[in-house]
Amino acid sequence: MFMTPDPNSTFTTKFSDPTAIALQPLPDHQETRLKAFRSLQAGAVGFAVLWVIAGLSASYSLLTGNLGEELTRAQTKVDLEAQFISQIVAKEINTAEHLASALSHEERILSSTGEMDSNLHLDKVPVSERSAHLTTIPEVNGLNNMLTSIAQDLDLMAVFVLNTEGTCIATSYLPNGVNTLGCLGQNYTSRHYFQRAKEYGRGMQFAVGRAVKQPSLFFAAACYADNHVSGVVVTRLDARHLTENLRNLATITWVSDSAGMVISSSRPVQLFNFMRWENQKPPETWVLNNVYAQETLTDLPLTRNKHLPAEWNIWQLENQNIVLANVPIENRQIRVWHALPVDELFHNQKRYWAFALTVILLGLMLILFGERMIDFHQRRVAGLAALSRLNKSLEEASRKLFTIATTDHLTQLATRGYFFQRLNEEINRALNEQSSLALLELDIDNFKNINDSFGHPAGDAVIQHMAAICRECVRSNDIIGRIGGEEFAIGLPNCTKSAALEIANTLRRRCANEGLTYGSKTIRFTCSIGVTLLNGRDNIQDLLGVVDKALYAAKKAGRNRVHFHE
Ligand SMILES: Nc1nc2c(ncn2[C@@H]2O[C@H](COP(=O)(O)OP(=O)(O)OP(=O)(O)O)[C@@H](O)[C@H]2O)c(=O)[nH]1
């Protein structure tokens, strides 16, 4: 029989519609967007790598090429300047040399070294008095004046005349208030240039002067009388002159002689440094002492910068990078060296690199920022997609649970709990709309006997057959539930008493008449049905209590009956 339901459990159980809590699934175009985002993201990462590689290699080739060009320009500049300086040096040297040669033919000098020299009687005058003696001779004074004016005009340090003994008999360089030495009456026999002039007609020598200790170039030319050397004219060029005007420039200029020694330098501190050039041998010590007045040999601190490409031809002078040019002066063993510091170019290069790296880095950050943005959106869409998939499976699970909870597995009718929930809803609706509601309760008669006679599976088949009959006899909006083992209930909204009784009788007749073919057997069965109407009741317990009584009455009256109870 029908058990009165517990209001605290069954009736409060809610079987919610799973579609009500379902989220909208992810639209297809979101999946397409996700794919687009992923390829965009991969593209951004690829682009970032390309950007860095291309940026670095472009900067390297541009900046290295640019530095190479600037260094080539600097080299060209320094070459041209060296050429120009060497021409000026050559001109100064030639002037001094030609002057010596020209003066060796000069009439007054020839006479002073010829007949006049023999009248000077220098051999009778002590060496210390020769200078004073000579200044008393008017011809000598006249000659001195001439030589002084020539030396001044041509910017020479001194012009003087030596007799065949090497004694100075006339000079532009006279003792005066400041300088008490002068060179008049001094003897220059030992001088290399004097000996060369006497022997070959001409002589040239670099030396630090004895009386005036300045590095100088001496040019000597012999005077001839009757095919014999009658004296020697000497011009003395101050070696400082060769580079004097170049001192305040950024460039550095040296002039080296045949011994590889710096005899003039725009940086005076490097004077008499040794230019260790190719196979140049350093001068011997006595030469160092006598000619250059140096005690030890100092190398010019000039080395090749081996850390930079050889084609750039960069030298280092005291840790300063320079480009270097050297030009030999024609027919002389003198060279002009000219250097231009190029550290500024390297500093510029560093600045360009810093700029290029900043641009590369900023670009990279921008690309990576873009990539992060894409990643963010990608993750968002991916998250939505995952959520949507989760939602779908939850929805599926929820649907299954709903079905399990609301559907009887044997008959596919509503379960007891779900039937009561639905019946409750229909009661409320009927009360609200003041419409009628009929309730049928059905029970298969003597079902135990069927089980006992035909077996439990056959009993199941009878229950299923009974459910099918119920479904076929009611409308689509009526509710049917299996509320016990062989008990069923049917809620009929908007149904009158006569209509409810008619349905109940149809059901009863079909059960009694049809029987169920089970294998080779036919199982005959009947059912008893209780019928009632809502009739102003406002709760399910009362309604169920009444219909239960109606069913009980039907059973009691002999089964296979329909009984109505008000
Ligand atoms: N095969 C089958 N038997 C069931 C199922 N549920 C309940 N039963 C059986 O149904 C029988 C019900 O027997 P009773 O409640 O004594 O009632 P009855 O034999 O139908 O007699 P009346 O209701 O008085 O006509 C029991 O023997 C249960 O074991 C089911 O799902 N399948």
Describe this structure in words.
It is built from 15 helices and 20 strands. It has helices spanning 18-21, 28-103, 107-113, 115-119, 130-135, 138-153, 192-200, 241-244, 285-290, 343-406, 416-433, 447-454, 456-473, 497-514, 540-556; strands at residues 158-163, 168-171, 202-208, 215-225, 228-238, 252-256, 262-265, 273-274, 298-299, 302-304, 314-317, 320-328, 335-341, 437-444, 479-482, 487-493, 516-518, 521-523, 527-533, 562-564. Strand 6 (252-256) and strand 7 (262-265) form a beta hairpin. The chain has 566 residues and is an alpha+beta fold. The protein has a 6-stranded antiparallel beta sheet. A 5-stranded antiparallel beta sheet has the order 2-1-5-4-3, with helices on both faces. Strands 15-16-14-19-20 form a 5-stranded mixed beta sheet, with helices on both faces. The two termini are 19 Å apart. The chain has 2 domains: 77-344, Beta-Lactamase; 416-564, Alpha-Beta Plaits (2-Layer Sandwich), CATH 3.30.70.270. The structure holds guanosine-5'-triphosphate.
For the largest sheet, list the strands in their spatial order.
7-6-13-12-11-10
Radius of gyration: 65 Å
Low-confidence stretches: 1-12
- The amount of helix comes to 40-55%
CATH superfamily of the largest domain: PAS domain
Instruction: Give the helix/strand class.
Output: alpha+beta
- The total count of strands amounts to 20
- Biggest sheet record: 6 strands, antiparallel
Report strand %.
15-25%
CATH top level of the largest domain is Alpha Beta
CATH topology description of the largest domain = Beta-Lactamase
Catalytic activity: 2 GTP = 3',3'-c-di-GMP + 2 diphosphate
Cofactor: Mg(2+)
Protein name: diguanylate cyclase
Keywords: Membrane, Transmembrane, Transmembrane helix
